[in-house]
Amino acid sequence: VNEFELIRRFFAVQPVSRREVALGIGDDAALLEPPSGMQAVLTTDLLVAGVDFLPGADPVSVGHKALAVNLSDLAAMGAEPAWYLVALVLPRVDESWLAGFCEGLYGLARRYHVALVGGDLSRGAETVIAIQAGGWVPRGEALTRRGAQPGDRLFVTGELGGAGLALRHQRGECHLSVAEAATVADRLERPMPRVLAGQRLRLVATSAIDLSDGLLSDLGHVLAASGVGARVFLERLPLPVVYRERFDELGWDLALAHGDDYELLFTVPQANLERLEALREALDCPITEIGEITAEEGLALIDRDGRLYTPRRAQRGYDHFA
Ligand SMILES: [Mg+2]
């Protein structure tokens, strides 16, 4: 099976097509027609076997997650996702792996109506998946890390720590029953990017980021970019049920520093809280207020007794080069 045959079999016929794609897969490059009044939003993410996923991981999950992490970055900008490119390095031709990978990839692409517009295939020692994704946001309405203001309330979507708990279970570092493990497995393997929430938060939130590296690390980026500080009330963190049940064993650190949850963290000024309340019903995920932005720089974590909490390990989130 040669490269062109693989492309024809797995990538040539696409489940999603979009109006703004004037020319998609099959030429030297794709042509896009930007909708008027929109700014293009671009992002890229790499997944490396043995670093970002286990070489034996279910290819359906790998395909899903490879696109999900990119859509999560677009969601954090308030963008409507529209298209993506896939570059793959494979150690060998494995058609059943590719079929699974495409099943996961295209399942998510269909759900959010994003069109594959190009890609490349090559051979290398390890599987490497590089996806670039793009979308559109009305000019001037993108959410960034920079807009948080003192007095803004701090919110997260969904739950925190589920992906970290699932990974710990997979590594045998903590025992969950089959039923318990099933409640958090998808958080690690098939995270759902908060695409709808991101778009609805435009003109409501003052800043946003997606939680890929852990709350401490990602909130730190927002605080640094905005030149502010924050107070987070730990007892308000939305933890999965199975996490709460094992809280004595797990403590706060999984929710604070593990990452991989792909929830959105965002700030909302007092003046927009009513608009946020009105949105709540329309979102496909819960949102929880966890703290507030302060003029004084630095991050204060407040525990149940109102005391300042210092994370057990000086974890600042996931770092590929640590
Ligand atoms: Mg991000």
Structural summary, described in words:
With 322 residues, the chain is an alpha+beta fold. The mean pLDDT is 94. The protein is globular. It is 33% helix and 25% strand. The chain has eleven helices and twelve strands. The longest helix is centred in the first third of the chain and has 18 residues, at 59-76. The strands form three sheets. A six-stranded mixed sheet has the order 8-10-7-11-9-12, sandwiched between helices. Bound molecules: magnesium ion. The site of magnesium ion (MG) has 5 residues, from helix 2 and strand 8.
Total helices: the number is: 11
Number of strands: 12
The 3D shape can be described as globular
Strand percentage, roughly?
15-25%
Order of helices and strands: HEEEHEHEEEHHHEHEHHHEHEE
Helix content: 25-40%
Radius of gyration (Å):
20 Å
Ligand types: magnesium ion
Major sheet characteristics: 6 strands, mixed
